[in-house]
Write a structure and sequence with these properties.
- The chain is α/β, with parallel strands linked by helices.
- The chain has one domain: Imidazole glycerol phosphate dehydratase, domain 1 (Ribosomal Protein S5, domain 2), CATH 3.30.230.40.
- The chain is 33% helix and 28% strand.
- The strands form 2 sheets. A 4-stranded mixed beta sheet has the order 1-2-4-3, covered by helices on one side. The protein has a 4-stranded mixed beta sheet with strand order 5-6-8-7, with helices on one face.
- Strand 5 and strand 6 form a beta hairpin.
- Helix 2 runs parallel beside helix 3.
Length: 199
């Protein structure tokens, strides 16, 4: 099996971010963002997607978390895109339902080379450890665009914002894992009639 790892670095006046990942990992994470809730969500993505993930992110958080969270989504998407490469042999499309107490989230992904996100359901700010709830949406949009994947998220039920955010990342993790599994019947073929998912 080819090495499916990725690394991306982005340094601007607003943030300095380095991310490394292995999509054939065991779910280990080493995260440094300065926001405990954000790290909790990224750790859930790593653990439930069996993605080894290292994130080092600093930035102008004295004005808020917007730049750091958005830019982490950008860099994570780029690192994932590098790890997927041509996508030879992958399942490509997958979905997952994940419950967490009163919350239920549905996520579907398609690694067809088209970065697009549709997110339905609101996450508020309470019980989010200082992370604005709307930044979850913004992170996922940036991640999908830069990762060249189609992402649909539906929060089907839920009251607690922490539960809704956590279930969203767990559902995304499960969908990513399933979509990026190697299908033994596909061999080294690219799962697209275009014969490419990287253009």
């Amino acid at each position: 099996m080819t090495d499916r790892t990725g690394k991306a670095v982005r340094n601007t006046a607003e943030s300095q971010i380095t991310i490394e990942l292995n999509i054939d990992g065991t779910g280990k994470s080493d995260l440094s963002t300065g926001n405990g809730m954000f790290e909790h969500l990224l750790a859930s993505l790593s653990r439930h997607g069996l993605i080894d993930l290292t994130v080092s992110a600093t930035g102008d958080t004295h004005i808020g978390w917007h730049h750091l969270v958005e830019d982490t989504g950008i860099v994570l998407g780029r690192a994932l895109r590098e790890a997927v490469g041509e996508g030879r042999g992958i399942v490509r499309m997958a979905h997952s339902f994940v419950p967490l107490d009163e919350t239920l989230v549905f996520t579907a992904v398609d690694f067809g080379g088209r970065g697009y996100a549709v997110l339905e359901g609101e996450i508020g700010d309470s019980d989010m450890g200082g992370l604005p709830g709307d930044l979850v949406r913004h992170f996922l949009e940036s991640f999908a665009r830069e990762g060249h994947l189609n992402l649909h998220v539906r929060i089907l039920a839920g009251v607690n914002n922490h539960h809704k955010a956590e279930a969203t990342f767990k559902s995304l993790a499960r969908s990513l894992k399933a979509a990026l599994e190697l299908d033994p019947r596909r061999g080294a073929d690219i799962p697209s009639l275009k014969e490419t998912i990287s253009e």
